[in-house]
Every structure is written in structure tokens, then in C-alpha cells.
Amino acid sequence: MASEIFSAKNLQTGYGRVQVLWGADLQVQRAQTVVLLGANGAGKTTLIKTIMGLIKPWQGEIVFEGADLTHARTDKRVRAGISYMSEIGCFPGLSIDENIRIGGQFTPAERLRERMDELYEVFPAIATRRKALASSLSGGQRKMVGIAKALAGDPKLLVMDEPSAGLSPLFVQEVIQVLGRFRNTGLSLLIAEQNIKFLELADHVVTLSGGRVGFSGTVEALHADDALRRAYFGVTG
Ligand code: ATP
């Protein structure tokens, strides 16, 4: 039976006096991949940052593994097992190794060494250039560093803000493939995206528009709805 690992209820927030999120509800079940689909400006980054404690909610509740983290600091959320990958994903001015170590900063040294070996096996292209600055890598490789960094702490839930940003379609496919591997190990994923290619990974889709959650259901159900199909897939057939 599915069990809930994460839930956000009635999240409301904004910038200054401008309200951006108008009561967003979202759940992630254990080992489930949820894709938060929304166009530019829908409020995806605001929602993800609120989930990570980088933006304070005006109202609402955030629960992870039964613990109320609504007002917890970001580092407490990370220690609890939620990892975050921003749109940029990694620190370009640091080396690959340094990036991954930062991602694993709350992991005991010995475990982190093992974890880094595991991650370098999954990402051979960056393994050969550990001391290189992330800024010297291609956009696709930088994204891989970001994923390795986000996974270094062995999170239970990985929250990602537009992993496709700035990537060519070929690299988008690579990112999807890599995430699929971790998804199959039981990692829970919450991926904010506007690229519908990511629906390949989705067990559940939530749409966000104007700071409000619209649809919440399976990819098939999203497809079956004429208006939603036109809005998100741009096809009428
Ligand atoms: P994108 O795909 O462009 O990143 P998004 O879905 O992530 O879009 P947000 O970045 O959360 O959307 O933006 C939602 C709304 O909040 C937009 O209208 C945006 O202009 C506004 N906004 C975002 N950041 C700020 C800020 N720092 N100050 C004021 N308004 C902001």
C-alpha cells in the first residue's frame, strides 16, 4: 500500500505584498515520482523554494515523514532527508569533487567516500575530471554534477527545479535516463518542469498555473482530458 512521505497543504506565499502561491496542495508517496508541471511564471520555483524553507510560507503546512517542517530551517530539512537541486544545479566556481562534498556535508566521512564512489560509477564522464571546475564542463555534464551533488547525502526525497533548464533535447533525455535509474532504487522524486518529456518518469502529475494547483492525477488522466491535453501537449488529437 502506498504511504505518504511528503505533503504540502494550502501553501500560500509571495514576495513583499504580492501573493504568488494561492493555496498549493501536493503529496508525494514513498518511491513515487511526482512531476509538477507548469509554464514560465506559474510559481514552480516559488513552491519548490517554499518546500525547502528558502521562502517562508504565509500559510500552510509542510510535513515530511510525519514531522512538521513548516517552519524548519533548510539544513534541518536536508538532514531529515530532503535534497534540493536548483535550476543551476551546482556551483560553477567549485570543482566537481567539492560540489559533491557540499551535497554530502551532513553525511559521515566514511559513508560519503563510499557514496562518492557509487556516484562516480553512475557518472563516468565526470569521474575522470574530479578536480576540474564545474564551469569548465558542458551544460549536460554540469547537470550531472548537480544530480550527483543532490544525491550525495543519500536523500529519501529529491526535489528538483527544472532539471531540463538550458539543456539540449539530447541531454534532457540523458537526465531523464539517469533519474530513472535512481527512481528504480526507491528514491522519491518531486520534479518541477515545463518540459513534458519528464512525464515519462511520472507516477503522478500535478499542474500549477497562476500559483494554483489545477489537475492532480496520472499521466493517462491528464492525457484523457481534452482541455488539459491542449494546454500541456499542444495537440487536439
Ligand atoms: P520559471 O519557469 O520562469 O522559473 P516558475 O513557474 O518557476 O517560472 P516563479 O519563478 O515561481 O515561477 O515565479 C512566479 C511569479 O512570481 C512570477 O510572476 C514572478 O514574476 C514572480 N516572482 C518570482 N520571483 C520573484 C521575486 N524575487 N520578487 C518578486 N516577484 C517574483
TrEMBL record:
Organism annotation: Pandoraea thiooxydans
InterPro entries in alphabetical order: AAA+_ATPase, ABC_transporter-like_ATP-bd, ABC_transporter-like_CS, BCAA_Transport_ATP-bd_LivF, P-loop_NTPase
Entry superkingdom: Bacteria
GO terms for MF: ATP binding; ATP hydrolysis activity; branched-chain amino acid transmembrane transporter activity
Keyword set includes Nucleotide-binding: yes
CDD domains, per database record: ABC_TM1139_LivF_branched
Residue intervals of the ABC transporter domain: 6-235
This protein's record includes keyword tRNA processing: no
Protein name per Swiss-Prot or TrEMBL: ABC transporter ATP-binding protein
Family that this chain belongs to: Belongs to the ABC transporter superfamily.
Key words, A-Z: Amino-acid transport, ATP-binding, Cell inner membrane, Cell membrane, Membrane, Nucleotide-binding, Transport
Gene Ontology BP annotations: L-amino acid transport
